[in-house]
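Project standup — Tuesday

K.O.: blocked on the structure for the chain from last sprint. Re-posting the sequence here as requested.
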Amino acid sequence: MAQIDENRRHGDGSDELTGSGHDGSVSGEPRTGGRTGALLKLAVLALLLIGGYLAAARTPLGAYLTREGIGEAIELLRGNPWAPLIFMATYATATALAVPGTILTLAGGALFGFYWGTLFNYVAANIGANAAFVLARTLGGDGVRRLMGDDSAALRKLDRVVGKHGFRGVLTLRLIPLIPFNALNFGSGLVPLKWRTYAVATLAGILPGTAVYTFFADSLLQGSLDASRDALFGVLLAGGLLLLLSFLPAILKRLGVRLPGMSAVVVPLVGLSLAGRPASGLQDAAVPQLPDHSDFTRVLTAVVEGPVVNYSRLAADPTALNRYLAALASTDPSALDAANEEDRLAFWINAYNACMLKRVTEHYPIRRAGGLLGLRNAAAGRPENSVWQIADVFAGTHCLVAGADRSQDEIEHEIIRPMGDPRIHLAINCAALSCPPLISRAYLGDTLDRQLDERVVAFLRDPVHFEVSVTDGAPTVRINRVFDWFNEDFGGHEGILAFLAEYLDGADRDAVADPEAGLVFFDYDWTLNDAPH
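H.V.: unblocked you, prediction finished:
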């Protein structure tokens, strides 16, 4: 230890070595605290690290650190206004407990895009790294010195090395992506290194790697969503940058660049400038995406049985429906704003139908309501298993879509109908026998026009919903009462007949085109459209 004091007196730069103790550092002087207490604290640190490992490997939380789990977490967070804080808190806590954070860094890029992802990853990684350092210093620093022996030659050598190369060593190691991030966090806390030295070296050293990893995830996501030449170039560039960073310390040394004087400025700028893309390209890559609706198609394929739905099967296993609802909930409203009209309309039709399925399965099997609701339903002649037995079934907010709780009425009357396509009344399903039935696949923007036309044609071929008869030479058109309730969307009764004529031919077309044609609406059956058991 005399050598350390001698170096300090000569002012040779070894003041980076801790010794005063007032800043939380491990002193180079022998401590007088109890050996048992120091070793107990070291044991607590070991238990914390083991606990972090077990949480990541042996509990349900660990599932979110896999590729599939991260994907689910991204979908849950996307569109959530608290997503940045939730993400940074999770990242920092995981790092403080030595849980591997690389996949979280990649998730930040996929979730927030390059610029915001880099910022959130950088802040969270620094918080977690410093928390890990403090944990190691508080619980393990004295214990390590006690185990090594305060007067050991190895400890004196370690003190000299840290004193001479502390800042440069940490900074150099931080610049190499292959160096385990958590090992360096905790290892730095166990050696006699000042916290401020560690913090500054970490602040400067992790920025390039954070930017490159985030850029890699952003480019990879863009490549999966749009297999474009620019996206592929971005992925290849990111891989090249990671390789370059691994050799950067050696390259700078060969060029005569001293890391302590230059890296804090040059390295971040080099990393960011190489990782940068044209602003428009970055914005395109970071544009939030709509769900692809494949999960909903799987749900519909499994439960739609002709004009009815197997609610019993769906209620027994709503996993796929819940997964799709989670995707709807996390959809960023800006993604809807940026989408074309067909994609938006398909999204909201699917949302209405999925939320209606949710409404039914949450109350399945439906029973007759009591109280005033039961009296109102009885007075209206509604069946005992009608969805009207569910309180506020259409008016109540119950389904989170695009970051807001929605009701069926809001989705239908405030969002879908104003989009101006009356065919939607044959696509959305209110869970009643008289309601135009669900189909066994989700609606997609690319095929929406054809799908809606198919629904109209199928509807007009079903005598339950449409028929034409002639009495005394005058045609009578009987049709589902949905057309009466929403006749304004079709342009009134005359508009309804004109709409139907577009999809009919032969005698039926002549009948609806007859100026003397009468329009009659079927009684509406609110019985639940449940498959027989």
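K.O.: great, moving the ticket to review. The chain is about 60% helix and 5% strand. Confidence is low (pLDDT under 50) at residues 1-33, 221-238, 257-287.
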